[in-house]
Amino acid sequence: MSRFFTDQLSHKTSIFGLRFWAVLGICLGATIVIIIFFISLYFTFKRKNPFHKTTTPPQKPKITDEIPPTRPDPTPPLTDKPENPSTEPGPSPGSGSLTAVKTHGAEDDNSLNGYEKIQIEIGKGHRISYPERGGGGSSYGSGSGDQLAIVSVQPEVSHLGWGHWYTLRELEVATNGFSDENVIGEGGYGIVYSGVLADNTMVAVKNLLNNRGQAEKEFKVEVEAIGRVRHKNLVRLLGYCAEGAQRILVYEYVNNGNLEQWLHGDVGPISPLTWEIRMNIILGTAKGLTYLHEGLEPKVVHRDIKSSNILLNRQWHPKVSDFGLAKLLGSEKSYVTTRVMGTFGYVAPEYASTGMLNERSDVYSFGILIMEIISGRNPVDYSRPPEEVNLVDWLKTMVTNRNAEGVLDPKLPEQPSSRALKRALLVALRCVDPSAQKRPKMGHVIHMLEADDFPFRDEHRGNREIERGRLMEKRYIESGDSSGYESSRANGTCN
């Protein structure tokens, strides 16, 4: 049998005279090549044709034990309150996590890309980062359809050691849904509400209005300027809220209104602000400004010192507030050039004309504030005769004409001594010197207000010395130059 198969395989065929085993090998190899060709053709066709792709149904993500369970919100839901009570048309520490929730309303289709990271520098080596919703729209708007939005779930307490992160819901509950009955102040940049937190702490809640991004600017400035500041004469920033387009600042509550209300409001024929209280307000405000100018690095220039920004507690202790226009000034800089901002009547002349800002601009505003406290008059009052419209010019004229007592607020319960009055007036006049370099620093102002021998050195002087002092005082007031005053103070000749 073996020989038979050998003979058959070795037999020559009619195909080119090839033996039979050679023909079988050729056919087998051709078959393998054809099979490989059809297999490769199949896979090539499948890759190019998308309709042949197999789709797998979406699967729900598995919730593993690695995700910590979220605590239920202890805040009771608001009833009969709109979802967005803010009048706005519409910083988180980096330890917060992101979670997806369902919201109603018109949102950007690209909700994830609608966020950008905002960083706020707090002093040296501290930074706050929080997500900001792009486009300025609020995630609390009303509308049709459900949409998946990303919101930031913030830690209950900031890890920076000074600020508390408040949720919008907390502040809604604290302010009774930002109701009109809780409004205690209103300005161009926001509305201030009184509120009571869950632990019965009274707070002032400032809801910043997003006028062309001004809310974002003021939010950053206030957190930068006073985020870590602790001084008895500066209003303390307790925390903040940044959800969606909302920018809200939470301050300690100062329970006795502001200085403007007590100076110019309807307090009756006799003001409760005695001379001693007024001097304490001046001195406390000076100490707060001294801390901003000389106790911080970088120093803080408030840029909006005025009576409405001086809050008072029940003991009449002053607290400087509203740092929305403040500027930070490093020790290596003598001034910063910026857009002129402030309140008409309080702005220093060199800042108004050149935009060059430094701490001496605050000193000028403080001098105007002293005059306002002493006289009970507004810095600019168009209801008065032309020669009395400008408080500085009128007061200089009164002092030059030796009528210092005539500048006193008629509502004062009792008049101060001539010595105390002239001391306060000369400090005010030095602060409003037209030359910024001749104005005293706030630390020097405190010394002048507290020194018992300022501006007098000797009560028992001859008439010739008294007349010489009066002449120097008059020359200083008329020219607006403090050199005459310095000379008279050095020689003890002011009376």
Write down the CATH topology of the largest domain: Transferase(Phosphotransferase), domain 1
Strand order of the largest sheet: 5-9-10-8-7-6
Number of discrete helical segments: 13
The portion of residues assigned to helices is 25-40%
CATH architecture identity of the largest domain: Orthogonal Bundle
Strand element count: 16
Order of helices and strands: HHEEEEEHEEEHEEHHEEEEEHEHHHHHH
Would you kindly provide a written description of the structure presented here, covering whatever features stand out?
- With 495 residues, the chain is α+β, with helices and mostly antiparallel strands.
- It has 2 domains: 97-252, Phosphorylase Kinase, domain 1; 259-454, Transferase(Phosphotransferase) domain 1 (Transferase(Phosphotransferase), domain 1, Orthogonal Bundle), CATH 1.10.510.10.
- Helices cover 34% and strands 16% of the residues.
- The chain has 13 helices and 16 strands.
- The chain has a 6-stranded mixed β-sheet with strand order 5-9-10-8-7-6, sandwiched between helices. It has a two-stranded antiparallel ribbon with strand order 1-4. The protein has a two-stranded antiparallel ribbon with strand order 2-3.
- Helix 9 (391-400) packs antiparallel against helix 12 and helix 12 (463-479) runs antiparallel to helix 13 (483-491).
- It is rod-shaped and about 150 Å long.
